[in-house]
Amino acid sequence: MTPSTAAPPSPGSSAPLGASLSDGGVNFSLYARRATAVELCLFDRVEDAEPLQRLTLDPARHRTGDYWHVQVGGIGPGQLYGWRVEGPWQPALGMRFDPTNLLLDPHGLALAMPPGYGRAPGRSSAGDWGSAMKNVVADPLAYDWEGDRPLHRPSRETVIYELHVRGFTAHPSAGVPPEQAGTYRGLISKIPYLQDLGITAVELLPVFAFDPLAAPAGLRNYWGYQPVSFFAPHPGYACSSDPLAVIDEFRDLVKALHRAGIEVILDVVFNHTAEGDAGGPAFCFRGQADGDYYLQHGDGTYIDVTGCGNTFNTNHPVVRRLIHHSLRHWVQHLHVDGFRFDLASVLDRDQTGQPTPLSPILWDIDTDPVLAGTKLIAEAWDAAGLYQVGSFVGDNWQEWNGRFRDDVRRFIKGDRGLAASVGQRLIGSPDIYGHKQREAEASVNFITCHDGFTLADLVSYDGKHNDANGEDNRDGSDDNASWNCGVEGPTQDAEVLRLRARQSRNLLTLLLLATGTPMLAMGDEMGRSQQGNNNAYAQDNAISWLDWSLLERRADLHRFVRELVRYRQQRDVVVHARNLSLGELVQRHQVSWHGVEPNQPDWSDSSHAFAVTITSVGQRFRWHAMVNAWWEPLLFRLPPAGGDQPSWRCWIDTSRPSPEDIVPWSSAPALETDTYTLGPRSIVVLVVGLSPGAAAGDGHPDPPAAGPDQPRATPPDPPA
To answer: Is 493 part of the annotated catalytic residue set?
Structure first.
C-alpha cells in the first residue's frame, strides 16, 4: 500500500528506536530532545524532491519524554522515509535545528542514495530533497542464513587480511564481470584466493554507509571513514540499486566467507561522522540533537580529537545506546565476527573530552553477552595524542600494536637502539602486555595498513608523494620509518630491486613469526604500490586498487608469504588447540638469546643483530632465527641443534633468490658446519624436529610452534 492510501497514523511507541515492523505497519521512533516540531516524510522514489505524505507529529500524542514516535499502517519493507525537525538555531547551546533539511534516521537499517546525490556546504538538502539520502524500512529477519552463524574462531588461528571491498576487485585485472567489479559479489569470487593464501579473517575497511563526496573537489571518498549511518551497509558496494538487496548482498558475502572458514571483521568508525565541523552538512545527528551527539566546548564549538571536524559524544547515554544497538545489529542480523574500532581511544573520553578511567561505552561492549566471543580490536590512540597501546580498558580487547610496526620498521631499515625492542616484539611484546592476564594474541601485529605506505612503497620511498590528493603534499604523515634502498621510487637498477625484495621478506618474516595476531594489508603479498601515496583516502582509482597482474609478476613474494602463513596454522597451539595466555606461555617455553656468539646477546644501542632459539610448547620442534639488520655480512656461531637430527636445517634465508628463500622442511638442506654467514640485511631461520612423529604425513613436516608458542619474558629475554 502506498502512503497516500495508508491507514491514518496512530501514536505508536518510543521503543524500539528507528523503523520497526509492527501491527501491519511500521513504528517510527526518533530521539530529538530539544526539538519543537517533528515531521515524518514518506517518499515513493529516492529521487523525489517532495514526499508523498508528510506526517506532522502532535507532541501531545506522538511524544514520550525525549522521543517522537508514530505508527503508520499499510506500509512495510521498502518504504522510503526521512525526518524534518524544527527547533532553535542556537549553536552556543548545542542546538542547530534547520527545518529545511531532510534528515536520516540514526537507527535506520537501510539507506538509499539518489543518482544526483549532492553535498552542499553547511547543509545537507535544503531546497533540494531530490538529491538527499533517504532511509528505507527493512526487516532485519528477512533472510535465509541456511544455518550460518558467526564462526568464533580462536585468535590463535587467526591471520587477518585488511582489504577494501571496492579496491579488491575494481581493477580490470581482477577478472570479475564488469557489473561485479568493486562489489560485495566481486569479493565473493576472490574467496578461493584468500583460502589458498591461508587467510582466516578479513578486516573490511568501512562498510557502514558513508558520504562518498567527503573529499577534496574532483575526488571521491574512497576509504569510507565518513559515516552517515551505523546500521546500513554501504549501497555503493552492491550490484543492485535496490536498498534491501544491498543488505542481502552483504549477507551473501558474509555467508560465503563463513563457508570458507573466513571470519568477517568490520573497521567501524564511532569516533566522528561525515557531518564534519560547523561548516559541514547536516545529514542526521546535527539536525536532531547536536549537543548530545557531539562533544562541544562551553560555547558550542566542536571538540575535535579525531582530525575530522567533530567528535562523537560516545559516553552520552543516547550515543552509548546507539553504538550498542549498532554492534548488536551487525552481529545478530548480519553475522559479522568482530570489529576493529577506528581511533578507539575516543571512546575512552568523557563528555568534556577528557580521558576517563572507567569508560561506560567500552565496558558496555566488553561485557555484552550478545557480543561475547566477538573479536574486539582497538586502534588504541586518537588524533589528539591519547595513546593507550598496552593500557586500553577492558578484559576482552585486542589492540593494534603500533609499537610493533614502528620498532620493526626502524630496526630493519637500520636505525640504532632497537635490537632489544624487536626481540620483545617477536615474543608477543611482554614489555607492553605482560602485566595483563590475557591471551597471547592480544597484540595485533602489523607492518602496514591502509593508512600509510604499502609494503612495496615502504622499501621504495624515503618520503610521501601525495600530490594526487590536491593538498600540495601537506597531508599524510611525514614519519614513515621508510627507506628507498638507494633510489626514490621506480627503478630498473637490479641491485636496488634485489635489496627491496630482501627487505620486504625481512619485514614479513618478523611479522609472521611473531607472537600475536598478524595482519597483512591488501596486496602486500604481491608488491602492491600506491606510487608513494601514504594517504590515499580519496584515490578511488588505480593508485588504490589491487592490480591482480602483480600476482604473476611477483609470484616469488606471494609464495614466500603463503609459506609463512601456512606455518602459522601448524603450530602446536593450533594443532593441539591450546588457548594459552601470554603469562602461561611465559612459564612454559624454552628460549635462549644470542648474538653472533651463542648465549651472548648484544642489546646495546649500536647492535643491529641478534639471534633467538625457541622450542615449541609441545616439544615437537625448535627453530633458531638469526636477524642481521647490519649492512655488512655477519658470521654467526650456532648453538647445538639437539633433537632428532644431528644438525640444523635451513628453512628461510631472505638473502637467497626464490625459491631458495623459503623451502619445505622435508627438503631443507642440513648444515655441515656450526657457523652461518648471514648476508647484509637478511634473516635466516633454521629448524630441527624434536619428536619421532614430526615428519609424519605428506613428507612436509609440521613447522615448530611460534607466534603464541613463544619464550619466557624473563632473563635472558631482551630488556624492556
So the answer is: no
